[in-house]
Structures are given as C-alpha cells and as structure tokens.
Amino acid sequence: MPEPYKQTVLILGGARSGKSSLAQQMARESGLPVVYLATGVITDVEMKERVQKHRESRPQSWVTKETPYGGFGQMNENWSGKAVLLDCITFLVNNLLLREDKEEVVYQQLLKELGFLFEKHQQEGFYFLIVSNETGMGIVPEYPLARTFRDLQGRINQWLASRANHVYMVLAGIPVRIKGEE
Q1: What H or E segment, with its residue span, contains residue 95?
Q2: Would you please indicate which residues are annotated as catalytic (active-site) residues?
C-alpha cells in the first residue's frame, strides 16, 4: 500500500451530502500543509454565500488557488509532502461545458487537466483529495445540456475512481468506503 501522503482519495456524494466537510477533515487530520484547488464560480448571491461559507470553513494557513477552468498544467510549484484538495470536479465539468457544449471536446479537456494532476501526483507524491458529485442516481434530465452534463460527470467520476486508492460515497453526512482499505 502506498504511503498515506501519496494516496489519492475520491469523495463522491450528492448536493449538501457532507463530501466537502469530509475532504476538509481528512486534509486537516493529515497534518500536512494544504493546497486547496477551488473550482466554483460566483454567478449569483446564493453562490457567493456558498463560496464564503467554504472559505470560512478552511484554516487561514491553507493556500487557496482559484481554478474554475483548470489550468493545472500552469502550476509549477512542488506539492511534495502536502495535501492537495480539489473541490470540486462537478463545478469544473460545469464550467468547461458552459464554455464548450460538445461532450467529447470537454471530456478530452478534462482528461488533459486531470491527467496533469495525476502525473504531478505520481512525480511529487502528495496526498490528493478529490471531491465530486454523484449525479447519475436521479431521473433522466429533460434537457439535452443537462443530459450531457450528467453523462460527462459520470464518465469523469469513473475515470477518477479507477485511479484513486480510496473512494468514499457520502450519504447524509455518513462516509461509506466503496474502494480501498482503512
């Protein structure tokens, strides 16, 4: 089993399930310096309040990088021996899909962005925590863009889960381990 600080943990869950809280708790408990990759974009008052709550819940010692469209390949700092928390994949998928509505183009862009992070993880060895929504458990969306989003999110979650050492599903604030050992 890889050393704890070289592990990748994917945390899935629905909206307001507690997945971000779990990821933050795991980052804090690691005792490592934390780099927080934030993907949210403030588009309205509700989102502004949500982002503010997330900011207030993080220790001031954490380094936050705003990454709503990725750009991970331009990050040159070494993260060896740190915890890197990417919160969340769902906003990244949404943001890229609203720029380019062709599913396969966005999928390839996501693979490039996330592939860079996994390559960096392999080279430098950091504790990698990834938060993402599970969007495939509901009804089939009525609108084509919503179906494309759901499908794309599902494909990316599968790609991430296949590469993660540990995968958790958070339901009503309770984490359920679905891959990996304690």
Answers
A1: helix 89-99
A2: 54
